[in-house]
Amino acid sequence: MSTYSASKTVAIAQSAEEGAALSGRSLSLPVSFPSGGIGVFASLAWLAFGVSCLWWPDIGDWPRTSAIAAAAFVLSGIIFVATVAGSRLGRFDAGLQRRAPWLLALALFLTLWEVATAKFAWLPLPFFPPPQSIIEVYTDDLPKLLDSVLASVKLQLGGYAIGAAVGFLTGVSIGWSRGVGYWVHPVLRFIGPLPATAWLPIAFFTFPSSWSASTFLIALATGFPVTVLTWSGVASVSNAYYDVARTLGAKPSFLVLKVAIPAALPHVFVGLFMGLGSSFAVLVVAEMIGVKAGLGWYLQWAQGWAAYANMYAALIVMSLLCSGAITLLFRARDHLLVWQKGVVKW
Amino acid sequence: MVALARAEPTALDSTGASLTVENVSHAFDIDGAVLPVLDDVSFEARPGEFVALLGPSGCGKSTLLRLVAGLEPPRSGVLREDGNAIIGPFPSRVVVFQDPTLFPWRTVWHNVALGLEAQGILKAQRHRVDAAIELVGLSAFRNAYPHQLSGGMAQRVSLARALVNDPKILVLDEPLGKLDSLTRIAMQTEILSLWQRTGFTALLVTHDVEEAVFLANRVIVFSDRPARIKADIAVDRPYPRHRGDPYLADLRRNILGLLGLDATW
Ligand SMILES: Nc1ncnc2c1ncn2[C@@H]1O[C@H](COP(=O)(O)OP(=O)(O)OP(=O)(O)O)[C@@H](O)[C@H]1O
Ligand SMILES: [Mg+2]
């Protein structure tokens, strides 16, 4: 890109980096757009989404159509103002600039979705509900949805915490002590690889409540990867570290707590991430089959009533929760493992 | 033996311990075969003495130091600190290992604090950590992580980590091997003045003959593996020493000859 022109500056960038580079360069050019041509396009796209909601009549009965159109107009306005105001908004602007391509893509997707469902029914209708009917679920079925979220979070948190704690302790013990390893290792080999959901039928009639059974299963799904990775982490700590600590007067407890565990922590986090993934799967299945609460159960219930909009709404909430949990875990890792920055690529 | 070590004045007020190595032999099992590493090694370091160990690569110097540290028991023979048999590691004998082996998850400050923390006396003795870091000239890096240090700086941190414990016997396994020649000379002077000030007994393994004769009261030369003592040479020269001293140059030539490198001189 050797020639600079206003039109080039405003042209849709192929990638985020290119977009950033372009907007960076355009600052030095006397062009009419202050910064972030993509911001303007994103604003226009949201405008288009709003218009698409109102332009054609709905082919069904959806009370929230004008509401989401209004929301789209407001969002479009905000993006436009923020883009024009540019750097005067400081960090907010920087955040917007970074997200502008995504905002643009999202608006385009919603417009397409709106037109393909609510307006022309290119997609078969009950199975592909339009955006406004999903919004309707969030406004009209909120209490039930919130209850489900709460139930899921409680179940997941309890099971995950227990599984992570037990897995961590077991992993450290078998990594540290040959005696413990002798007994636990074969058990782990034998039971660990079984998918936790295979235990489901047994768990549900051996445990006093379906809630405790599900907690156990989630803990099991979390515990296995955490155990194995903690163990391999502890076992792979270089002897040189122990030698150093021992010559400096370290007792065995110090060797475990201040040498083995910190050195193994990067492995432990890999286990925690894997455990999180597999425990989500168990959570949803357990809720669908046994526990009469939670998002899994909500999904099941919605399916029974052919309430497809509710299913999509629940799915979206579920994915937000899962990615939120992953983000939290990443935050925790970044905080605990700052020392790894620069040692390995994140 | 070229010359026997004689009693001579060592570090000023000696707080060091004596180290006795009595008929120590050691071997490793590699793939079922026995690899003899130390063969009937005996010597004694008096309190406050600075002893340098020289020998070909792989002859068993680091192994001997591990025995001194108490990290492994010898196959036969005894090692004693102040007459008491060494049966395990103890912070009165601190090792500066060949690799700095800093803990990557700890900052410079916390790496240096390791010994005091392990002995449970860090709370009352935090100033000692600061002093040790100051001593190796890394105050500006107290909050840096090991990966942010250069090789030489890491080696200095590991020296500070040892010194902070006020050892009676300081065991140095090629601590300056990775430094550039200028830093190396500065650190040699630093180690020497530390030794004179605190009076620990020093056991230094090095490949650098000049370093050995410049620093030590005594130089012990080992044979090829399994290591036997080939010569025990007193460096009969007062401190401060001069690097250009013809006596030291002579000694260096002799020792290089013992190591089989006389042809180059
Ligand atoms: N843990 C071990 N297991 C088996 N063999 C070992 C072990 N440690 C050292 N050895 C062997 O012992 C011999 C002496 O090793 P050592 O590290 O003491 O040599 P060194 O004199 O310190 O050499 P360098 O000057 O290169 O550091 C080597 O041949 C090595 O292969
Ligand atoms: Mg060595």
Keywords:
heterodimer; A: 346 residues; mainly alpha; 14 helices; 76% helix; 0% strand; disordered N terminus; B: 265 residues; alpha/beta; 6-stranded mixed beta sheet; binds adenosine-5'-triphosphate; binds magnesium ion
What structural class do helix, strand and pairing data of chain B support?
Answer: alpha/beta
Mass-distribution shape of chain B: globular
**How many β strands of chain B by DSSP?**
10
Helical proportion of chain A? Answer: over 70%
| Largest sheet: number of strands, sense, barrel closure of chain A | none
Strand content of chain B: 15-25%
| Secondary structure tally, helices of chain A | 14
- The oligomerization state is heterodimer
Summing up helix and strand content along with how strands pair, one would put the structural category of chain A as mainly alpha
Note the run of SSEs of chain A as H and E.
Answer: HHHHHHHHHHHHHH
Q: Please give the alpha-carbon distance between the first and last residues of chain A.
A: 31 Å
Helical percentage of chain B? 25-40%
What is the total tally of β strands of chain A? 0
Shape of chain A: flat
Radius of gyration of chain A: 26 Å
Order of SSEs of chain B = EEEHEEEHHHHEHEHEEH
What is the percentage of strand-forming residues of chain A?
under 5%
Strand order of the largest sheet of chain B: 6-7-8-3-9-10
Describe this structure in words.
The complex is a heterodimer of chains A (346) and B (265). Chain A contains 14 helices and no strands. Chain A has helices spanning 6-10, 16-26, 37-55, 65-85, 91-119, 131-140, 142-176, 178-191, 200-206, 210-235, 239-247, 252-289, 294-304, 308-336. Chain A is mainly α. With 265 residues, chain B is of the alpha/beta class. Chain B is built from 8 helices and 10 strands. The longest helix of chain B has 18 residues, at 181-198. Chain A binds chain B through residues 238, 240-241, 243-251, 254, 258-259, 262-263, 265, 337-340, 342-343, and chain B through 66, 69-71, 89-91, 93-95, 97, 99, 101, 103-106, 114-115, 117-119, 145, 147-148, 161, 165. The site of magnesium ion has 4 residues of chain B, from helix 1. Residues 28, 30, 35, 37, 55, 57-63, 98, 225 of chain B line the site of adenosine-5'-triphosphate (ATP).
